[in-house]
UniProtKB/TrEMBL annotation:
<feature type="domain" description="U-box">
    <location>
        <begin position="41"/>
        <end position="318"/>
    </location>
</feature>
<keyword id="KW-0808">Transferase</keyword>
<comment type="function">
    <text>Functions as an E3 ubiquitin ligase.</text>
</comment>
<feature type="repeat" description="ARM">
    <location>
        <begin position="122"/>
        <end position="164"/>
    </location>
</feature>
<dbReference type="InterPro" id="IPR058678">
    <property type="entry name" value="ARM_PUB"/>
</dbReference>
<dbReference type="GO" id="GO:0061630">
    <property type="term" value="F:ubiquitin protein ligase activity"/>
</dbReference>
<dbReference type="InterPro" id="IPR000225">
    <property type="entry name" value="Armadillo"/>
</dbReference>
<dbReference type="InterPro" id="IPR016024">
    <property type="entry name" value="ARM-type_fold"/>
</dbReference>
<comment type="pathway">
    <text>Protein modification; protein ubiquitination.</text>
</comment>
<keyword id="KW-0833">Ubl conjugation pathway</keyword>
<feature type="repeat" description="ARM">
    <location>
        <begin position="81"/>
        <end position="123"/>
    </location>
</feature>
<dbReference type="InterPro" id="IPR011989">
    <property type="entry name" value="ARM-like"/>
</dbReference>
<keyword id="KW-0677">Repeat</keyword>
<feature type="repeat" description="ARM">
    <location>
        <begin position="163"/>
        <end position="205"/>
    </location>
</feature>
<protein>
    <recommendedName>
        <fullName>RING-type E3 ubiquitin transferase</fullName>
        <ecNumber>2.3.2.27</ecNumber>
    </recommendedName>
</protein>
<dbReference type="Pfam" id="PF25598">
    <property type="entry name" value="ARM_PUB"/>
</dbReference>
<dbReference type="GO" id="GO:0016567">
    <property type="term" value="P:protein ubiquitination"/>
</dbReference>
């Protein structure tokens, strides 16, 4: 390679000198943007306390958008003590304000540190109020917020004690497709705590879950199948599933559902067979062929559940044969 000319060296040196200036300029601009964002958010939070309903509505709507995708904005909004003010607005008689407030809280709850702050601000009962009284989108987002909060185990008991199950079941029955999914997902999280399962069954959730799980008429979703698997682990749940016509639906899901739906349906059937007298009904509904396929082609957990069921069927046949030969 040849030597560079003096002109080239001069241009190179000039470029090197410019680098710190560019970096410094970018840092200054970034700092200014952050300051402007902080100041604008602070003003919006102050507007949440306005005596004007229109001002409150607009402020909540803007905060909703700011918190939607930007993690930094969520931190700033929480730091300006917006959470308690948004919780207060859940009781607003203006449906749009209520919707914007609950959706902002949903967006804020995506940040782990904010979950505790939302619960500590007394949000659970107001969120349940929105579940009962809000417009369709507000109810959906209230259910989604409860789902987010109930990802922390210690919150589940408080959510149930505050009366969340009945409005969630009502949303499961009468909500929009998205609302039904949000309700099912919230109920799934709540059902992770065993002490909540009987209350979910008592609220008549099982018949609505079975309707949603039916591939022919429902809205199949892995959360629905997961709730049924959890409820099948208690006697009341197994009885409710059978009485609601759930066995043929679960067998059909094992055959036609998604990979996760098949896994949860197999888990539910395993509970029903091992812990109750309904094993013969499961076999008569044609469970064996799809379980054989699932034992070979399903997820690892689905394979295990399917094989356990098939082994149990064999044991039952042998026991019946032995009893008949005596």
């Amino acid at each position: 390679m040849g030597e560079r000319s003096c002109s080239q060296e001069s241009q190179c040196l000039s470029s090197i000198k410019l680098v710190p200036q560019i970096l410094c300029s970018n840092l200054v601009e970034s700092g200014q943007d952050l300051l402007e964002s902080d100041m604008s958010i602070k003003k919006l939070v102050e507007d949440l306390e306005s005596t004007s309903m229109e001002t409150q509505r607009e402020a909540a709507a803007k905060l909703r958008q700011l918190a939607r995708h930007n993690v930094g904005n969520r931190v700033i909004i929480a730091n300006h003590r917006a959470i308690s003010l948004l919780v207060n607005l859940l009781q607003s008689t203006d449906f749009e304000t209520q919707e914007n407030a609950v959706t902002t809280l949903l967006n804020l709850s995506l940040d782990g540190d904010n979950k505790a702050a939302i619960v500590n601000a007394g949000a659970i009962e107001p969120l349940i109020h929105v579940l009962w009284t809000g417009n369709p989108e507000a109810r959906e987002n209230s259910a989604a917020t409860l789902t987010s909060l109930s990802s922390i185990g210690e919150n589940r008991v408080n959510i149930v004690k505050s009366g969340a199950i009945c409005p969630l079941v009502e949303l499961l029955e009468n909500g929009s497709p998205r609302g039904k999914k949000d309700a099912a997902t919230a109920l799934y999280n709540l059902s992770l705590s065993r002490e909540n399962r009987a209350m979910i069954v008592e609220a008549n959730a099982v018949c609505h879950l079975i309707e949603l799980m039916d591939p022919a008429t429902g809205l199949p979703d892995k959360a629905v199948a997961a709730v049924l698997a959890n409820l099948a682990s208690i006697p009341e749940g197994r009885t409710a599933i059978v009485n609601a016509g759930g066995i043929p639906v679960l067998v059909e899901v094992v055959e036609l559902g998604s990979a996760k739906e098949k896994e949860f349906a197999a888990a539910a059937l395993l509970h029903i067979c091992i812990n109750s007298r309904f094993c013969g009904m499961v076999v008569r509904e044609g469970a064996v062929p799809p379980l054989v396929v699932l034992s070979q082609l399903g997820t690892q957990r689905a394979k295990e559940k399917a094989q356990q069921l098939l082994n149990f069927f064999k044991q039952q046949r042998r026991a019946n044969a032995d009893a008949g030969s005596e």
